[in-house]
Amino acid sequence: MSEMHAIRRTRLRERCSAAGSAAALISRPANVRYLAGAAPRDAVLLLGPDEDTLVCPGPLDARAPGGRLDEAVRLHTLPGSAGDPAVAAVGLLTDRRVTSLAVEEHHLTVSRHRAIRSVAPRVRLGDLGGGVEQLRVVKDEEEISCIRIAAEIADQALGELLESILVGRTERHLALELERRLVDHGADGPAFPTSVGTGPHSGRGGHRPTDRRVEEGDFLSVCLGATYRGYRCEIGRTFVIGTAPADWQIELYDLVFAAQRAGREALTPGTACRDVDRAARQVLASAGHTEGLPRAVGHGVGLEIDEDPQLAPAAMGKLDACVPVTVEPGVHLPGRGGVRIDDTLVVRPEADGGPELLTITTKELLAL
């Protein structure tokens, strides 16, 4: 992907130039990786007018996760472990006679910002804002391929778990087993902490697994994701344990399934992000579920598990093609449990078949 990394850096350089900055300092790890191909711990990328430099606090370890550095990027390693790579990177500008620098103010701490000013007092600092994040929204097909493989790994791990004996096992045990299976199938690791909720814990967004054991008749909700070559996916499913589901479980599941389908069907290029949220939320609201709903029906995924665009009531902007997103409505009834259904999809035009579903584990209400 060296050529693609170079194209990305050129696009960002053009943005900086148009805003009056001759160079840019990238410190957010996902943005460093997006532009340079690698993001060793604490490394920063200095985008110069004629040369790009990755500044690291120590030598690169080829075995460590973080990607492979684009050969066109110069590597500058700090001696020992002393010094701040961001400050050292700005110090390199004094040799290039650069007078303006764009920085990611939303990522820099106040003290780090002050240190940068002190080492280069004559360099005018500007805010790059979310410039790199905006470039990251629309994915190329190689990025989508990585997310697709991550989704296949997550589907495999979940499918294997469903074939095992579940009654009597704790939420924590099941979560750890899922994360082990992700790695066994080729993932870099989990995309985020795996959530397993049983009984009254089911359907909670971001539930942290406990030592509660799976019981007959429980709702079991699982939310997991895999990371593959830095790219992440997300899948969430809800099942019933042991016996045929109760009437209230069927009714609640069908409602959340209908909301999730409405959200998925709204994923077309040009659709306002808030309209995707509205499509799913209205289904739930029509059945009287207006309290305790997720702040957003979905979000973008990529090098981070929660990226733009946000599919939320107050979200601005419209969807583009080739944007991977989640659609993940859920309802939780206090003391009883709930349902959460979560897929990763890629926005595609109708001419290409509409939204591409990446997470394909069945959404049928199974009794396990």
From TrEMBL:
Residues 146-348 form the Peptidase M24 domain. Keywords: Aminopeptidase, Hydrolase, Protease. The keyword Hydrolase applies. One of its GO terms (molecular function) is aminopeptidase activity. Residues 188-212 are annotated as: Disordered. Residues 8-138 form the Creatinase N-terminal domain. It comes from the Bacteria. The keyword Protease applies. This is Aminopeptidase P family protein. The lineage of its organism: Bacteria, Bacillati, Actinomycetota, Actinomycetes, Kitasatosporales.
